[in-house]
Every structure is written in C-alpha cells, then in structure tokens.
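Batch job 17 of 40 flagged for manual review because the log was empty.
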Amino acid sequence: MPTISAPGIGSGLDINGIVDQLMAVEQIPLQRLQFKAGDYLAQISAYGQLRSAMATFQDAAAALKSFDDFDAFSANSGDDSIFTVTADNTAALGSYDILVASLAGSQKQGSASFVDAGTTTVGNAGDRMTITIGTEAFTVDIGGKTLSEIQTAINEATDNVGVTAGIIQESDTSFHLVLSSDNTGLANAMTLSFADSVGTAITDPLGFAEIQPAADAQITIDNAYTITRSSNTISDAIQGVTIDLLNTSPDEVSLDITRDAGAISSSVQKFVGSYNELLSSLNSLKQGNLSGDGTLRLVERQVRSVLGSSANLAGTYAYASEVGITFEKDGTLSFDSAELTDALENDLTSVADLFANDNQGLAFRLDSLLEGMLGDDGLIDAR
C-alpha cells in the first residue's frame, strides 16, 4: 500500500508561522473595512461640528429677521430712588414728567394685647370671625382658641381670600395677632365681623384696630393726567412702559423713552461673531476630516454671497457694508457699532428693512438658506 505523508514536526517546516501568515492575509479585508468605518465615523462627527456651527449662525441671523427686533427701546428714570422703568417693543419714543403723590399700601389690623400666645384663649366656644375683602369672605373659629391657634386657622384656611396672620411679641406679657392683606390698594382692605355659635353678631373679642390703612398709588403725568392704581407697579398708563414706584416725590421726575441702539448693536455683534465662528469651523474642517469635501466650499460660498449682495431695496441702505459690517482680507467679518448707530439714527426703517424685509432682507435670506441646508433631506443630511 502507498504511504501517505504530510509535513509535520519532522519536516522542518514552521507550521505555526505559516498559519499566522495565512490568518494575517485573511484579516486584511476586515482591517480595510475597519479603517473605512473609522474614517466614516470621523466624517460624521465632523459634519456634526459643521451642523452645530451653522445652526448657531442661523440663530443669530433669525434674531434679526423680524422688524420687532428693531423696535428696541430703553426707558430711563430721572431718579431711580423714586421709580424705575422698563419699556417693551410696543413703546414709543417720548419724554414725560412724573409726580409720585402716594404709594399703594396693604392694610394691617392688630389685636389687643394678650398675656401669651399659646395658653390664654379668646372669647367663648363657637365664636367665629369672618374676614371680607371686596366681595369675597372666609370664616374661622376663634372661640376658645389661643392666638397661635387662630393664626394657624387663618393661614391654613383653604378658602382664605388673601390675608396673612402673624404674632407680634411686645414683651414677655404682651402678644398681638396682626392681620395683613396680601395685596395693596383700597380694593383689598379687610372688613372684620364676629358672631357667636348661633350666628348672632357679637363685639370683637380680639379687640382689633387698624395699624396701617390700605392705600392706592397715585401719580400725575405731565401735570395733566392723574393715574390711580391699587399696585405700585403701573403698566397700563403709558403704552409699552412699566413703572415701578419706590417712593413719593415732592417734585416731578423725568421719564425718557429712547431707541435702544445698544440692544440692536448687540444682536448684530452676535451675528458677526457667529459668522466668524462658522468660518473658523469651515477652515478647521477643510484641514481635517472633511479635507477636499466640496460641501464646505459650497456653504461658505453661498453664505458669503448673501452677505455681500445688495438687498435690492429702495431705502437708504442696501448693503451690509453700509451699516458697519465689512469683510476683512482673511474672509472674516468686522463690525463698526458706531457706524450702525449712525445709520439707526439716520434711517431706522431702512436698516430694519436691510435685515428683516421678507424675501430681500439679509437675515431673512440667510435664515432661509441655512434652513434649507440644515433641514430634513437638506444638504447636510444628504452628505
């Protein structure tokens, strides 16, 4: 019979080495796939960075695409110790003289003196106290209770209409129950009434007396209009303006509403800064994981095209460069806030139109452009 032989230990061949080399060869395709996978993951991460930078710039552009964003006003008080003031975008430019005649106050009533708050009881069993504010009222039992128990009954009443009870200790043998209206103004003054267990009216067993009257706030505007309100915060006297009263004034105090160029300038500065951050991200990605990717050049080219183009409007200003936004040699944007302020004072409507005009405004067009790139099935999702 023929003899079958196979190389083995006696053959002198390096069987383990041959096997290792064969396995290494077999792993080459897998290693190539792993390398590609790592490269793709790096690119996906890079696109995440690009998306983030583009979204930040889009937010900055969106903050300038509404005409309301240019209706920013600053309100100033001639004496912050008398009143402070704020204005929203419904305000109008103007100056007023304000005389603060009185401040709104909440009513307080204090009881007669009791020798203690936790032992001595009030009245007779079944006695009740009703507290009324306006047309609303609630009732608590007080007969046979201590001041502390009455305080708790008032403060924990589920139907309490706006009264807080407290205890003042004048001395070791003098305690008073004090009731305070939670809200200021004459409309929130308290009325107290008392009845026994069968509902018959009785004399106040607590001996309450008013220690601070309720009061309305009153101001006079331009020595012509008298405004009376229940609160020290008056937001319905001058459109778009909120006045917080702090003290009365013997003389008139000025209130000025001016255009808040600083707020608009801050939004434009953020817009310019966000563009420069986007440009920095694009340059970094060009030298990194997205080297040679035409998407980066497309994004930069289209955004720059909008920023450098005319808004094609009939107003005073048609280019960003005319309101202080210019390109530097390195492609970044610079911003001259003084030039923007001059433009706002010269023709606010035209500046607002330059950014916020529908279809033509720079911020409006940039927001639309970036939305198309970042949206579902947009440029970034496609890549």
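Reviewer: the log was empty due to a logging misconfiguration, but the result itself is present. The CA atoms of residues 109 and 210 lie 4 Å apart. Unflagging and moving on to job 18.
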